[in-house]
User: Fold ADP-ribosyl cyclase/cyclic ADP-ribose hydrolase from Arachis duranensis.
Amino acid sequence: MASFVGDEASSSSLMPRPCTYKVFLSFRGKDTRKGFTSHLYAALVNRGITTYIDDKNLPKGDLISHELLKAIEESMFGVIVLSPNYASSTWCLDELQKIVECNNNLGLQIVAVFYHVKPCDVRHQIGAFEEAFKKHELRFGQESDRVRRWRNALKQVASYSNWDSEQFKNEAILVESIAQHIHERLIMKLPSSMKNLVGIDSRLEQVVRHIGLGGNDVRFIGICGMGGIGKTTISRRVYETIRSEFKASCFLANVRETCEKRGIVQIQKQLLDRTNINSDTSFHDEFEGKAIICDSLCHKKVLLVLDDVDDGGLLENLAGEQDWFGPGSRIIITTRDKHVLEVHGAVNRICKVEGLEQNEALELFCLKAFKRPKPEEGYMDLSKEVVEYCDGLPLALVVLGSHLCGQTIDVWRSAIEKIKSFPHDKIFNTLKISYDGLDHSEKNIFLDIACFFKGREKDYATNILRRCGYHAEASISALINKSLLSIINDDKYADMLGMHDLLQDMGKHIVIQESRDDPSRRSRLWSYTDVDLVLAQNKENEATHSIVLYNMYSEIERNWGDLDIRDLSFSNMFKLKLLILDGVKVPILCNIPCTLKVLHWKGCPMETLPFTDGRYELVEIDLSYSKIVQLWDGKKVLKLLQHLNLSFCDKLKQTPDLSGAPNLKTLNLHRCEELNYIHPSLAHHKSLVELNLMNCIEELPTTPGRLGGVSELDLSGCRKLTSLPLSLACFVGLKKLELSRFVELSCVPYSTHGLESLTAYDKSDNPNIVGLLCSLSRLTSLSTLKLYRCFPTSRKEWNLYYNLGHLTSLTDLDLSRNYFLRVPISIHELPRLTRLNLNDCRFLKVLPELPSSLRELQAQRCHSLDASNVNDAISKACCGFAESASQDREDVLQMLIPGKEIPAWFEHQEQDDGVSVSFPHNCPSTEIITLALCFLLDGFTFLQEQPSVVCNGKEFINTSLLKMSPGTSSKQLFIVCLNGFCFSEQLCQDNRFQMLVPSCGYFNNIRVLRSGACWVIKQDSEGFKKRKSKTGKRKATLELEIDMMSHSSPSRNKMLVVAPPLNELEE
Assistant:
């Protein structure tokens, strides 16, 4: 779908202007007057769109130029039909210039139609446009301001996505598409009885776009979002705007509430009555009602809005199937629960409503508080404080704005403090509707997240909730669907739990209402003051089941009162399940409740914990960064314990007796540097899955016992480990192994397991890389191999090559931070390799031959790479991708490589962050074609930034792009190859592809300098490679130079070390 030039200019900031015409047509008469333009004019007029065309609207005797200028100024849209002879007419170019001026100054929107001309010809003014401008320059002079303005106007119009006649099967389809799209855009500009709807335009546009007026299909559109976000307002505005397009229309408000009070049958009767169906047959149950609705409306074009639906059963009884309604019908459903829409098989599209932007929120609040769009003098800071509290929620902005209207500054200050402690009743009650609809488990998890886990990692919270006995994943998914919870996807960190501030306040208020005056009768405690009071009272407590205190940051220590000097006693808390005391510095913990499921106490100051001989229900203990010397003495009954984290306990001398914890799954001893004894009981833990001994022990115990279930073993940092003991053969379930010394893996039990991941780095003076690689020969299940700083730096070993072709399952290979001149592994012989990381290989001169299976290549900060070699590698990789790319799913190849200019074989190149390309005319199908995009980046970043590629301003691929790692400070090429599946829906126009890079000011100023694109058709890829690979001699010369720099040395393993492949030396 073509976008409209001037969308930005037509914002609400522009003053409204009188519009005599909806559309002004600009065209070259001798090219299109009797054909295309007359058909487009007729299509617009048939839709009731007042259209200006010069030979229809001008009264005789008037000055054409004056009337044209006035007509353009009084039009909402300017349609420019760019035909071959358009630029030869000064009259047309003057019209064009005036349209562009009105676009920039008045908000007029432009629709450009490339009628039998190429968009690039218009953009670069070549072909017929070049000839026309040569004549204009001869007539007016090369330095003429008038000619310059014409050129600039053409460039501006052609830089946007528009309509290309060559992309449509016939002109009838093109004409109808343009007329329909203008019709939809005009609908959104019609006046409404609803006033002061700040920020409505963009949201209205999204819904109308999904509605797709003019089609004969029956379409269900869902609008979802949290309570008070504006779903009803948007749907009502849409309804008022388009109802005239339908033979029958009905807006059913508050469906949920009406059904609760009056029943579904009454709503069915209301639907029939409002659609003018006079049913003589009375009915008394929903089944008869469904049949009558279907029979009465199946031949009518209906617009139906069902507002506030919270149950799929309501939909089944009011709008069960598409065939209940006649052709062209549209059914709009608003709900807080996205799942209701997903389970209804007929819903085609779902629009999620987001909160208002900061400037929109301030304007809406001011309209209610001051009856004008800006605050009164002296109220700006207070207004911003309220707006920040409301966090974009329209309901809260309207309620609080009305509440504060006409009040003094002192009243404002008092009211703001009050609402922060106790939410306004109208806001609270509206939001609580969603909470009341949750089941018992969902309510508990909602309150836990509101009180404890908002803004924390999703996995962290999920694990804790699961270990407390909740079905966390299912409940979190339900909360997301009901718009009570969101997941914040941060490229730099893990997924975080997000929740609107007002929802969080509501959750905390629900807990406080359990007992407003006595915290010991509340289910959850998170306030230091409340916990201190409850501990001081030391009375029996059967209400509190969760206490969470975080004090890891010094700036909040002043709020702790006496808690840090009070001994903690929880003996009277009979139902306590969750206890988090991270950073609490109390001298003594008197007891540990037997009911406790999860105990987290990072930074615990105690040397041991007061476990008794009783039976405990603990599932997880996390005492990382603590002063623990001995966790407990003797055997303790912890049959449910599965996770024990003692990492960074730098005083820990020995592991505890774990014989009473037979179900232990993970044991983390990372950086327990004083650890000198591992209790023999560990040897008998058949359930142990993950054992982390990183930077912990000097050597692995010689008798680890029967640890057959361990799948992850971390021995990195064990510097004196020169070989793996034979006892390692007991790790028959090992899947992941990390080492910091190169040792032969001969003792790894190959026959009974398949190691899938190996990470190794060696900072010693003489790393045994050959011994390590030799021992990989039988690890056929290995899928991930990371070898950091592994390969020798001496010149005599630069010419060695290692054949790892037997690793047939290898998909990820990380060779970053090595010092070789060329990659010493036969990469092309790895048939399933998809990711190759060569970052920070600063001396690397040539890229290896890459397998066609590769989908990610990173070579950031490889500053020694030869430019001609890089260009050659890129072209070969793109061709290999074209030959191997999937046809039935999205498939993407990405490469991030140093480079100063885009290779010349990218045929379409433009300055800045985007490039426009049209689908090649000689290609019959998207299944046999790929699109290679190349972006030249410059700048630096201190952050790990992830760019995105958009087509016509919208994201269109699901694959996450490679992240640019911190420290990048030189020019680099970002290549993205897309198979036909990615852009199969983007081919009806001249598409503009852009790379967008997040901007973070001083921390990231990476920008796109230039963009390139090239189509690669599968059957032509062999010829393409031969044409583009003209750098083979240069590469062979580089290889020869490397060989001359090295000195031949006898191989220590002739079966492993091989000569470089010939196809890397010759072309």
